[in-house]
Amino acid sequence: MSKEQRGKVDAMLRKPAPEGPRSVEEFRAGFRQLMAGMIVPDTVRTAEAELGGRRALRFEPESGPTAAGTVLYFHGGGWVVGSPETARALTANLVARTGLEAYSVQYRLAPEHPFPAAIEDTVSAYRALLDSGTDPAAVVFAGDSAGGGLAVTTCLAARDAGLPLPAAVLAFSPGTDATRTGESMETRAGLDPFFTRASLEYTGAMYLAGADPHQPLLSPALYADLTGFPPMLIQVGTNELLMDDSTRLAARARAAGVDVILDVTADVPHVFQAFAGILDEADEALDRAALFLRQRLRG
Fold first, then answer.
1. Which of 75, 105, 171, 290 has the fewest CB atoms within 10 Å around its CB?
2. 96: domain CATH number?
3. pTM for the complete prediction?
4. What mean pLDDT is predicted for residues 110-134?
5. Considering 60, 83, 104, 240, which one is annotated as catalytic?
6. Which domain holds residue 168?
7. Is 183 a catalytic residue?
8. Whether residue 145 lies in the annotated active site
9. In the chain, how many domains are there?
10. Which entry of 83, 104, 145, 184 is annotated as an active-site residue?
């Protein structure tokens, strides 16, 4: 655990933003630039793919999968920015550590395609996997930030559609409360080097497009019935405005009788796992995530 490493990451995320309002394209370009600096394992190869009518990237170890199962990955970016490429380091690290194959889905983004477009796309991708003959017991949902929220809401929507649920859900710093009412929105203000309330509300409004946030598919930490959900691993850092999105989701899962692990790491930012190879805590968290996935898919 390195205080120097944590300080370096914090400083990287606190670089001054350009003055004045930024367009959606500027936000997207800035996020691409940030995520392009993450370290991608060189033992994983990628290829273009398609799932449910949506573009995807397929990841596998260079020598081919060494374990049976598929990770269906949903990238972060507040439902407004991001792509399979921006989540390349996270997805590839899971593949390198588990030997599994993974598909990272390019779901539609707001404001061009607000709620519920992203969920429609992720459910379609899951349905396509099932239609291809993949056993749901050999599929795990994983995602970061908005994508972590999608890992949860895709389960909800799949269940409502009568589809079998996957073997597990892995969520890195998931966005699960569109009402923004968690206490951490106030208590972590200033500690979070990545978000402010204003920035979250700016992108959140694009995704909501007037929809009521007080509903399960937008705020599952508050309103979702998680009964019957597969085992969940939720990882979050203490320096996050959205920390309570994770803690309240875990409490709701536990109350519903779900096997849930809440994995909290001190003094690290939102989706700190992306800094694998830079931050010791990131590598250790990814090791724990990989162990969780292997255990859920065993046998």
1. 290
2. 3.40.50.1820
3. 0.96
4. 98
5. 240
6. 3-297
7. no
8. yes
9. 1
10. 145
